[in-house]
Design brief:
Elements: E1 47-56, E2 62-65, E3 80-81, E4 86-87, E5 92-103, E6 106-113, H1 114-121, E7 132-133, E8 138-139, H2 144-147, E9 153-163, E10 170-178, H3 181-188, H4 193-200, E11 248-250, E12 256-258
Parallel strand pairs: 6-10
Antiparallel strand pairs: 1-5, 1-9, 2-5, 3-4, 5-6, 7-8, 9-10, 11-12
Helix pairs in contact: 3-4
Length: 272
């Protein structure tokens, strides 16, 4: 049996991440409705609202990584990190969690790498020992804590958009989450592009996103913009069907089928 090195589970669902904080309106100047994401070229730093629709776990939800804290590379079958060139018998389980989220009839896929997933779940991947097959370096069943995410509503901040091989679709890598009820309610009920933008950028409500304040993070936690390179193929062959910026519906296999884009008429909606 391989002994696993653990990290301190110091992050919960909060308004900030270990490598970023938002304290001014400029931090939220770039916002989009979910329906706009696939037709927007630049989405880095963008916030959007969505409900978690399903867990995409066909290729697992975690992987056994190099125990060097600055390295996110997946260990090979001999427990060797091909990036460091070192045998690492004491690997670290790191998240590679994919979800499908929606707002109304619009769906997109999102990716949570290790740091962001720990925000979402409040635990490190290695804590779910009953769901990990250490001898074969793979995950087993999906933990209930992950399954229970379905139906929950969040504000998500995008770190980057990765292309899906063989498709024009994109998967959005998430860096931060917020579950502020007041802000979620406001944005959820803004049903046009114009009113959604107004809800995101309301000066009087900006503080609500970060009412919990900064989070204390273990000094060993490393966040990397290059986490997409952690795996040999970071579920890189994400078999997705193309989805556009218009209305899309999920198929039974988790894929989506989009219709043509139609720009909504901007109508200001008065708050009740």
């Amino acid at each position: 049996m391989i002994m696993m090195q653990q990290q301190s589970p110091s992050i919960s669902v909060v308004s900030g991440a270990s490598n970023a904080s938002a304290s001014t309106s400029d931090d939220f100047g770039f916002t989009r409705a979910l329906s706009e994401l696939s037709i927007t070229k630049e989405v880095r730093g963008c916030w959007f609202y969505a409900e978690i629709y399903s867990i995409i776990s066909s290729r697992g939800w975690a992987y056994l990584a190099c125990s060097e804290l600055k390295c996110f590379k997946k260990l090979n079958e001999d427990y060797v990190c091909e990036k460091c060139g070192i045998h690492r018998p004491n690997g670290i389980w790191r998240y590679t969690l994919k979800l499908k989220v929606r707002h109304g009839k619009h769906f997109v896929d999102v990716m949570f790498w290790d740091d962001a997933a720990r925000q979402l779940l409040g635990k490190v991947a290695g804590d779910f020992t009953e769901h990990l097959d250490t001898d074969n370096r793979r995950t087993k069943s999906c933990p209930e804590a992950i399954n229970e995410l379905v139906g929950q509503e969040y504000l998500f901040k995008i770190n980057r958009a990765d292309s899906v091989p063989g498709s024009a679709g994109r998967i959005y890598v998430i860096s931060m989450v917020s579950q502020n009820k007041e802000k979620i309610y406001e944005i959820k009920n803004a049903t046009t592009e114009e009113s959604i933008g107004e809800a995101y950028n309301s000066d009087e409500d900006l503080e609500l996103l970060f009412e919990t304040g900064p989070t204390t993070v273990d000094s060993n936690v490393i966040t990397s913009d290059n986490e997409k390179d952690a795996l040999d193929t970071p579920d890189s062959v994400l078999q997705r069907r193309k989805f556009g910026g218009g209305t899309s519906t999920p198929n039974d296999d988790g894929s989506t089928q989009g219709s043509s884009n139609k720009k909504l008429k901007s109508v200001k909606i008065e708050k009740p």
